[in-house]
Amino acid sequence: MLALLPLLGWAQQPDTARKTAPVRNIDLENVDIAPNAVDTKGWLLLDKDIQTELDGAVQNLYNFKYDKAERQFRSLRRRYPTHPMPYFLLGLSTWWKIAPTNVQTKMYDKIFFAYMDTAVTYGERLYEADNKNYEACFFLSAAYGFDARLHAERRDWRKATVSSKRALDYLDKSKEANGLSPEFLFGQALFNYYQVWIANNYPLLRPVMLFFPKGNKQLGLQQLKNVADNGFYTGMEAKFFLMRILNNEENNPAAAMPVARYMATTYPDNGYFQRFYALLCFNEGLFPEAERTSRDILEKLNRGMPGYEAISGRYATYFMGWLMQYKYKDYAKAKDYYLRSIVFAESTDETTGGFYVYSYFNLARIADKEKDAKSAARYYTVVQETADKKSEYYREAKAYLKKNKK
Fold first, then answer.
1. Does residue 93 have a pLDDT over 50?
2. What angle is formed at CA 280 by the lines to CA 13 and CA 242, rounded to 5 degrees?
C-alpha cells in the first residue's frame, strides 16, 4: 500500500500559480505573501536571465536531446557549484532517460540518486543559512519527491516513505512563497488532487491518508491547469500530469487530447509524448493521425533515437496491425505488425494483458478467417491463458476452443 504514498512525494516538484492572483490551498493553510516581503536576492529560480539562458535547454530536455540540455546544465553548475538548481536539472534529465521505459531500466539509477542527493545537500545548506529561503524549500521538496518516486518503483518502501514525508515537510514550508512565482504551486496542485483520488480509489489506504493534510481534488486540478499555463521550469511536468490525469483518472480523453497533441507536436522526438498521443488518437477513432504518429514512432525506433524503445514499439505496432486488419484488410501486414508487438511485449516482460492479449486475439481471428484452424487454436489458447476471465477476449477464446476441440 505504501507504493502509493510516494505519488504524493512525486507531487513535490516545482510548483506553479496562475497569472493573476495566486490560488489559495486552503487545506494546507496556504498563506500568500507579497513578493517584496521576502528577500529573493540570489534566487536562481526567479532570475529571468537564467530562464532566458535555460529556455533552449528545457526545450532540448523534453525533446530528448539530452546531451545538448545537459551541456547547458553543466555550464550552470560551473558558475553555481553550490546551488541545488543545476544538480536538480541534471537529475531531471536523467529521470527522462528512465521514464520512457516505464521506469523499467535501472542503468541510470545511481546517477539519478546522486544528482538528487546533491541537490538535497546544497538545498539543506541554503535552508540552514536562512529558513525563509523558499527557493531552497522548493528544490528540497522537488528532489525528495523524485527520490521517493524512483524508490517506490524499485519497491524500497522505507526510503520511498521517508523521502515522501520530507518532500511534504518542505512543501509545507514553501507554501508562503506562492505569491512569488508560478513555480511554487505545482507540488500542492498534485498533492491536492492525489490525496483525494488515492483515498477514493484505494479504501485500504484511507486510514493512512488521515496522517496527511486534507486535499481538494477539484482545486488541485484547477491549480495544475494554472501550472501548465504559467510555469517555466514546471510547465511541461504539469502538462504531463494533466494529460495523464484527464485521460486515466478523470476518464476524459477529449479534454486530454489537446494537451497530448500540444506535447507531441511541440516535442516531436519525445517517444513518451508521441505514444500517449497515438494512444489517444487510436482510442478516439482519429485513425489517420494514429497511423501517422505510429509510423513516425517506428521510423525513429529503427534509427535508434533516444527514448524510442520496446514500449513505444509495442504501442505503434499494435495500432498499425489493427489498422491493417480492419481498415486496409491487408492481413499479411496485420499479422506481421501483431507478431512484432508481441515480441516487443515479451522483451519488456509485459505479457499479462493489454496489447499482448489483443495482438494474439486478432491473430486468432485472422487465422480463423483464413481457415487456419491450427494457428487459430494456438493463438486463442494464449488468449484464454492470459486474458481477464471476465473479458470478451477470454469468452471468445474459450468458446472457439470448446467448439473446435478435437
1. yes
2. 20
